[in-house]
Amino acid sequence: MMKTSRKILVVITVLLFLAFVFNFAHAANAQKQQPGTSSKEKAKGGMGLTPEQLEKLKALHIKFDDVRENMMIEIQIRKLELAKLLKAEEPEQKKIEAKLDEINQIEGQLHKTMIAEYFEIRKILTPEQRRFFVRKIIKKILGGGRGIAYGKHLAKTKPQFKNK
Q1: pLDDT by residue (tens digit) across 78-105?
Q2: Residue 35 sits in a domain of what CATH number?
Q3: Over the range 5-22, which residues count as b (16 or more CB within 10 Å of their CB) and which as e?
Q4: 118: in domain
Q5: Exposed e or buried b for every residue in 86-103, given b needs 16+ CB within 10 A?
Q6: What pLDDT, on the 0 to 100 scale, is given for residue 141?
Q7: Which stretches in the chain have pLDDT values below 70?
Q8: Is residue 158 in a domain?
Q9: Total domains, the chain
Q10: How far apart are CA 102 and CA 53, in angstroms?
Q11: What is the pLDDT of residues 12-23, one digit of tens each?
């Protein structure tokens, strides 16, 4: 059960990171701001990217998007194969474990690819833009902008069990 929870957490983290990187690249594509953007505009979501930075981020997004997409497809294929193994009349534990190892290996490569993309993005940004970028990523990972406190209200309500 613990391994399943950990895998779910890893998948959610990966998806949030991918969503953020996609949104970051998309925002970079749509951004028409010039250098010297005011801090008020940056607070609204703009990073003050230069046209040169925009072009580099577009190219980077295209490069990594293809790699990520191929890995995600490979993971899905392996998961379908895993499902087939699990549905077998006489499932073989060794084959199932080997398939899980394949999935974990590809997921590990995907995580490393995402980290490589992160560092490539950092190279393009100024120190101020990097701080903004890192804050956005951390905010996404910790709850999509809701922060660590999100969900605390749920802990206040305790389940009510009736004796029968």
Answers
A1: 999 999 999 999 999 999 999 999 999 9
A2: 1.20.120.1490
A3: eeeeeeeeebebbbebbe
A4: yes
A5: eeeeeeeeeeeeebbebb
A6: 79
A7: 1-46, 144-164
A8: no
A9: 1
A10: 37
A11: 565 556 555 555
Confidence (pLDDT) at 139? 86
Is residue 154 in some structural domain?
no
pLDDT of residue 15: 55
| The residue to which tokens 């499902």 are assigned | 83
What one-letter code names the amino acid at 16? L
Whole domain around residue 58: which residue ranges? 2-147
Residue 42 pLDDT? 43
Residue 162 lies in a domain: no
**DSSP letters of the chain?**
-HHHHHHHHHHHHHHHHHHHHHHHHHHHHH--PPSS--HHHHHTT-----HHHHHHHHHHHHHHHHHHHHHHHHHHHHHHHHHHHHHSSS--HHHHHHHHHHHHHHHHHHHHHHHHHHHHHHHHS-HHHHHHHHHHHHHHHTTTTS-TTTTHHHHHSPPP----
